[in-house]
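hiii so my PI (J.) wants the whole complex modelled not just the main chain, which honestly fair. so below is everything: four entries, each one labled with what it is. i double checked the lines twice but i was tired so who knows lol
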Amino acid sequence: MAATGKPVTRIARHTRDSIYVRDRNLVEDLIGKVSFTDMIYLHLIGQPPTRAQSVLLDAVLVTLMEHGLTPSAIATRMIAMSSPEALQAAVAAGLLGVGSQFIGTMENTALLLADLIAAPGGVQARARAVVAEHRRDHKPVPGFGHPLHRPDDPRSPKLIALARDQGVPGRHIAALEALAAAVDDGYGRHITINATGAVAAVLGEIAIPTEIMRGIAVISRAAGLVGHIREEREHPAARFIWELTEREVAYAGPSARPGPNDKEGD
Amino acid sequence: MAATGKPVTRIARHTRDSIYVRDRNLVEDLIGKVSFTDMIYLHLIGQPPTRAQSVLLDAVLVTLMEHGLTPSAIATRMIAMSSPEALQAAVAAGLLGVGSQFIGTMENTALLLADLIAAPGGVQARARAVVAEHRRDHKPVPGFGHPLHRPDDPRSPKLIALARDQGVPGRHIAALEALAAAVDDGYGRHITINATGAVAAVLGEIAIPTEIMRGIAVISRAAGLVGHIREEREHPAARFIWELTEREVAYAGPSARPGPNDKEGD
Amino acid sequence: MAATGKPVTRIARHTRDSIYVRDRNLVEDLIGKVSFTDMIYLHLIGQPPTRAQSVLLDAVLVTLMEHGLTPSAIATRMIAMSSPEALQAAVAAGLLGVGSQFIGTMENTALLLADLIAAPGGVQARARAVVAEHRRDHKPVPGFGHPLHRPDDPRSPKLIALARDQGVPGRHIAALEALAAAVDDGYGRHITINATGAVAAVLGEIAIPTEIMRGIAVISRAAGLVGHIREEREHPAARFIWELTEREVAYAGPSARPGPNDKEGD
Amino acid sequence: MAATGKPVTRIARHTRDSIYVRDRNLVEDLIGKVSFTDMIYLHLIGQPPTRAQSVLLDAVLVTLMEHGLTPSAIATRMIAMSSPEALQAAVAAGLLGVGSQFIGTMENTALLLADLIAAPGGVQARARAVVAEHRRDHKPVPGFGHPLHRPDDPRSPKLIALARDQGVPGRHIAALEALAAAVDDGYGRHITINATGAVAAVLGEIAIPTEIMRGIAVISRAAGLVGHIREEREHPAARFIWELTEREVAYAGPSARPGPNDKEGD
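here's the output for the full assembly
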């Protein structure tokens, strides 16, 4: 808030013949001069990325874009079939799936890495303690394990190698690797760093705040979902999925369990 | 559909240790090797962009990302305040505003340009006829006019100049310029090509199909809206807008107009 | 707008100790005194329903609530699995499917009935002309035909009988029946009035404006989708549908069709 | 899952000439015979409500429908202006605001009441302990306090009185009242039970599971938001709110704070 008590914005302004975004002249300084990725960084962080930050943000956006017929893609195709006149609604429906179960673990990993980095007793000791706590509570360590990609998720070493190549400071990646060593040691077997875990470390390296990390996935998936809408229009699958669902999820009659009225109500 | 009658997908597949998107190995061929923009093009069109296509898609994505406190941004901020735990929902709410009133005219312009290009009597003659029809019906010509940016929207000449620099074939841009000449002539005064109109021509030049053009705006705006969420968290404005609205939109009591029951019902 | 040029609202206001909706005291006059259905009518139309209007609005809301594993329900379940912490997002995703393909025909039917009612030459003559136009253009008549419920959609005669029982004026229903007679005659066989068609006539009878008819379906489906979320939590089906989709929609490799670059670009 | 391992549904099924919802024949047993509210209860709970359950669900749905120009309503109006062709998208945008900040406290209250009811040492003792814990942690007790309605939210005593009139068992209401006494005692002043707190107790009385309580608010608000869309079409306010926001939320130039690159990056 300014002295007047009114909120302010630092994002954009325009006059009759100019548009400014983050204090740059859109037409003179940005269009044709910066990539979409660099524009995203400038907008989210308020200053242009370094070369390393640009390369790594591109890598993350490319990594997260597309995973085939995921729940988000299925939701998007259902809405694209139902409301073909509103492409934006089909994308929005799919994006609503970027929640706690598939992407949200990125934030939990980022918080954990920040905790390790700040630990007074050192990263290694804190990593061992964190793994011990998760084992005791029978909880998975965020950023580790994958149902399919075993023993290793191929995206993770690639992202980590890229970050090293770019010479970023590496505190988040060092923390992730300390955690990985403690995980393998604590569980007595190798558990992969999954893509979400590696992404959390790389986004930490390029100064994306934890509270908008999920937003990077949202931007990337928006592009992926537009691709599914295009395929759905050319080679429709939604009606087939609908009919398959109606056939394979059987009607089973009312439940035999005692109803809530047996316990509650007058 | 394949011979079996089942639908197929050409988007992505994975094995235990590899992920393929559009038949490229994600880890070997894409991460760290292609930009987000090129990945978007590959995904939407099925093949990598040429250099010119890449430059122009970047330019369009940069152009459309951010316009300040638009209706979409206000919707996103309202939901970000109400459901801060679900960033994806705040983005989705704003994206639902990428509809007919502010972006949809892009598609109408694209259809008009396609109509001009295909006209048997030539682009100029068809442009004049189209302008005459719109004047007769008192309808605005899609892609022309702007409430603020007069006499010219600064984004349009920039995008058109970039496309020329890149040496794209130029049929869509030639059609847009023929239409612009016919508009100025028909209305007897200069009316600007607006950004949406120029974007439609440039996306036509780089072979983005009309039916997913709106999707390019959706992807770009997703990034813009994440930026608004970040600012809302650091410098909240949503509650102020809410209180302002409650104060400035007055309660006016019931309408005096005759109710529908005076005409209908028993 | 009031004389000041500022917009006004007639919906609700509150003081420190009272809340008014549509000029009624919420606590004194509405809670415990009116049904949800009557409150919906009051809010949408600005005055309480007659008994007949209340009965028929209930009937429509009950009719539209639930249709099993529809595209909307599948979208809702996908998002409920992905973001279980945001129930509202799962409902929103499904509601986005209340678009042109499954519910929007209600509005087209309503517009057609209004056209018949206003026809100077009488309802019957206009009905025959409308059917002839649709046959000539090979377009289905909105409100007629159903892929499964043949020869008759059981909901339609029920809704029409209820409206008659309630003694509503019947101009919309009379128009629908004239249209049904013209359809059967024009196509030379019986084509059912579908539920959407009957709903359009009944909502017309109770003075719901065409431009918010779709909203009645949205309200009703919201309730249906909450039911799907509850079942999904107790007896999950979403992951099964996802795995089924991944297995049954096969990867087919890149398309052999000539790419857009063969025609466009440099 | 059934013995086959496939998931089942108990919601709806249909044949060529019949539709069944929750094992009732839609046309024979439900349309024209049950209210929308009773249909909602049947669908969510799997059996029809008692008279008391029906009366109280109506009361809650009427209570929550409409609160004027709330953040949800503003979001809905922004999208209604931007995408007037997609009414469902405008409703969905507003519903995304039914999250943790304004409605989610209902669930926290419900969990707290369940905790009190199950406390081995009795409701009163547990209530005092809970209040002491919240005071110690400087956290508000869920379901208590209101920024405007002081000393009392008028909706709460009304809902509680209605529940008593209907003779429901009253364990949730008794727990809420024990908590209210402990709150006033612990803080040394009267703090109102807010509407969300009272709703949580009443929904507990009528056997709505905590995990779908938010869904009751979603259904009710869907109706409220359709009302805002209708008013927006007849008496537009969205553009005024947009212009007001652009004028009152000032552009403030780039932040002077040290950027993240001063701490991170290469």
